[in-house]
């Protein structure tokens, strides 16, 4: 079967760095997405990785290792507004997104 | 303002009733999707449409139907609602059905409660 695993919840301090991991087992691979979802709102796109390595976009970076079925999202200089759920999703061989349950990130002052 | 709209925002529905959730996008995206999101679970695909006139079944299609008469609209119908269909429903669209990197844009969601 297809499976996306990510931690249920993480806590970090304002100004610090946090890494959210995602491991996956899917039928085929056509890229990995990270989305941010604030409570009661829709998911919004953060990043896309299809090749191994690190993609940096401002305070957010995303890493992919296809051989290990592993990705992480790195958030630097954390701000209170970064409190949200972070969703990992893999595009499978049918070009459908398979979603993880999301990681709720709590930022403390 | 470009984007996706959904209606209604929320709804309480008696079991056995028929309900249509509306979704409209003005980005001229080919592909559209319906997901449900339940606590502790990832988004689950109900139905999708790669282009106007075509639809396909996702992971959890039972009890739901869709149509795609034109590019902009993708309504989701619950023929006879059951309590297990209580969920938050998100409509999404993307520029292309295949090819990586096509991020999906989400509507604001419909919170549905079936009693």
The value of Rg of chain A in angstroms is 13 Å
Biggest sheet details of chain B: 7 strands, mixed
Biggest chain contact: A-B, 22 and 21 residues
- State mean pLDDT of chain B (0 to 100 scale): 93
Helix and strand pattern of chain B: EEEEEEEEEEE
General description of the model:
The complex is a heterodimer of chains A (109) and B (115). By secondary structure, chain A is mostly beta strands. Chain A is built from no helices and eleven strands. Chain A has strands at 3-5, 9-13, 18-25, 32-37, 44-49, 53-57, 60-65, 70-75, 84-91, 97-99, 103-108. In chain A, strands 2, 4, 5, 9, 10 and 11 form a six-stranded mixed sheet that branches. The mean pLDDT of chain A is 95. By secondary structure, chain B is mainly beta. Chain B contains no helices and eleven strands. In chain B, strands 2, 4, 5, 6, 9, 10 and 11 form a seven-stranded mixed sheet that branches. A four-stranded antiparallel sheet of chain B has the order 1-3-8-7, with no helix packed on it. In chain B, a hairpin with a 6-residue loop joins strand 4 (31-37) and strand 5 (44-49). Chain B is globular. Chain B starts with a strand and ends with a strand. Classes of the chains: A mainly beta (109), B mainly beta (115).
């Amino acid at each position: 079967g297809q499976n996306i695993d990510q931690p249920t919840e993480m806590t970090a301090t304002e100004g610090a760095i946090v890494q959210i991991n995602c491991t996956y087992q899917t039928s085929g691979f056509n890229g990995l997405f990270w989305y941010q979802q604030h409570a009661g709102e829709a998911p919004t796109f953060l990043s896309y990785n299809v090749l191994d390595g690190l993609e940096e976009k401002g305070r957010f970076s995303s890493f992919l290792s296809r051989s290990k079925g592993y990705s992480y999202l790195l958030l630097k200089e954390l701000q209170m507004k970064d409190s949200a759920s972070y969703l990992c999703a893999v595009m499978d061989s049918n070009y459908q997104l398979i979603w993880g349950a999301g990681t709720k990130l709590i930022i403390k002052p | 303002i470009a984007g996706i709209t959904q209606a209604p925002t929320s709804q309480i529905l008696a079991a056995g009733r028929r309900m249509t959730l509306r979704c409209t996008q003005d980005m001229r995206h080919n592909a559209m999707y319906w997901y449900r999101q339940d606590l502790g679970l990832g988004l689950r695909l109900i139905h999708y449409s790669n282009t106007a006139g075509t639809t396909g079944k996702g992971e959890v299609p039972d009890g739901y139907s869709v149509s795609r008469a034109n590019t902009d609209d993708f309504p989701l119908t619950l023929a006879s609602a059951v309590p297990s269909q209580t969920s938050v429903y998100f409509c999404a669209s993307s520029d292309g059905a295949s090819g990586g990197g096509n991020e999906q844009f989400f509507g604001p969601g419909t919170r549905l409660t079936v009693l």
